[in-house]
Description:
Number of helices: 19
Radius of gyration: 26 Å
Distance between the termini: 50 Å
CATH superfamily of the largest domain: Glycoside hydrolase, family 3, N-terminal domain
Shape: globular
Number of strands: 24
Strand content: 15-25%
Helix content: 25-40%
CATH topology of the largest domain: TIM Barrel
Strand order of the largest sheet: 9-14-13-12-10-11
CATH class of the largest domain: Alpha Beta
CATH architecture of the largest domain: Alpha-Beta Barrel
Amino acid sequence: MNREDREKNIQGLISQMTLEEKVSQLTYTSPAIPRLGIPEYNWWNECLHGVARAGLATVFPQAIGLAATFDEEFIRKVASAISDEARAKYNEAVKQENRGQYWGLTFWTPNINIFRDPRWGRGQETYGEDPYLTSRIGLAFVQGLQGEDPDNQLKAAACAKHFAVHSGPESQRHTFNAQVSKKDLFETYLPAFKLLVEHGVESVMGAYNRTLDEPCCGSVYLLKKILRETWGFKGHVVSDCWAIRDFHENHKITNSPEESAGLALNNGCDLNCGCTFPYLTAAYKKGLVTEEAINTALTRLLRTRFKLGMFDDPAKDPYKSLGREVVNSEKHRKLALEAAQKSIVLLKNHNNLLPLDDKPKRILLVGPSAANLHTLLGNYYGISPQLVTILEGLAEKTREKYGINIEYRQGCLQYEDNHPSNIQFGSANEAEAVIAVFGLDGAMEGEEGDAIASDSNGDREYIELPPWQLEYLQKIKAAGKPVILILTGGSPIAIPEDIADAILFVWYPGEQGGAAVADILFGDISPSGKLPITFPASTSQLPAYDDYAMKGRTYRYMKEKPLYPFGFGLSYTTFRFDELNPSCKEISAGEELLLPVSVSNLGNRDAETVIQIYVSKDNRSDDEPIVSLRAFRRVWVPKSGAVTVNFTLGSSIFESVNAEGEQVLIPGSYTVYAADAAPLPAAAEQGAVPPVSVKIIVK
Length: 699
């Protein structure tokens, strides 16, 4: 259906509806209107790292792990596979007249909030702490979900959430008021939303909290001035679930459900996940909203449904052939394995302990995360019959390695301390190496109400490894055997630097996580994941959790030495960057420069790495970032070979944001770096490839 016919049909339907029918379509459980041929529809669907909460699906690594791939093209492929499964499940559901929750095509994904504080339990859902990385990975995910022709035919509808400045604390999310400078707002919190809106994301979800005194789901500043007027957003806005009820119950900025519904609708929220918009009928009778405002919201919502093909001839549906055979197919399971392999980060490898070889040896595998299925899943996940724990992955990997004897002991508990007499240590004395699998799972960190082992509504009060796990590890290390530490989790974990000889951070690696870990441990794949978030050395390095200023946060503003910096991740081979020779060393507004970057593989293993381009202003003021990521590219480099990538960099990479939130280009001297981690002292100390740099004059 062409755009003109679509709009005529939308207005034709609206003209035939009663006020009550119109209002009924503005909640996430939209009932059928049989006389107009409008089927029932439930707008609430999730696909953070695979279609979630709707039975069988391929479970990819959690979002923070996907970000660790630093690979836009690959993320687009993953999201396309997810939308294949989404369409297949929708097609089957419609055949069975199942119009229920989690079986639709409007997905409340991706979460592009900035992971500003590692204590936030939902940080695992994001793409990390950097606005540029978040923007690029988020855009790739949206493009994979929405398909090749989103203006006319959406494959699935993506949603940029939570708008805006939403990043905990979870215990206060229904009440807190995020006070943030315009500089931080436009420099850090909003760039990803802006890019996704510019590239056609179909919907935006408002946050629970207030920002700058206004509730986000009814904010004149966020929804009308920035989103609609400045950015020109044409899609629909949905509230977070029951967030509009918070207006009168928690934020106390309205006095009744009618007032809350009216405030949200009048300021640009079109769809209510919750129970408040049914009061719009009463709000209309009280003069709090107009029928025109109701029609505007309904137009936007029907437009999304039309673009998804819900009113088209089924025979013309380009996705009609996708059926249940697509869901958790072998092709998608292989993609999940590749995603996990690309996401795993090698943090330490003392004396090249890894990879393990095939020589006969006795290995002790310990730790509660080794056999814990929840360490694969994170949150917002589907169900897969192919879940491979780390224990199972290692067992399968050593099936033909008859000289390798792996003995498994849980050792200690995941969530709490053992009784002292029950801690298992003895067998460590007989092993030649210890693989210790510890860390977090979705019960220890996550969303309010979901993380049942959290004392802080899903958040973490401290970022250190739980003390009972650390104590056990210290005793294992004291046995004097080489220790390979595998950490699971969706957020940074602070550990003593001498706690292990080799360390892998594997996130929540999805259904094939155990197989991917085994592939890395035994060298079938060289690790290539990079940290999308800084790992602080301790909780004491963090600013107050409820302070939304970026000062002291993330690699861009943190002055203290982190445990591991943003962008960091080692390899089994050695890389080298060649000297930079840009096409010019002076640039003016609107101009571009070409920056060829050559990276050589000096080792005897083929491997992938990520070329990262950073910019720093020389003689910067204290309120400017220390350094900022401006481009990146994942590349495969053959052993003893080299690869050159040509980056085209516009003058905008040198821009900064002033106190009024405006993008400005300040003349002066800048340093451009090519690196495989943020070019900070901590990266070099931990073994990152030495960066190369060049001075550029901005005129």
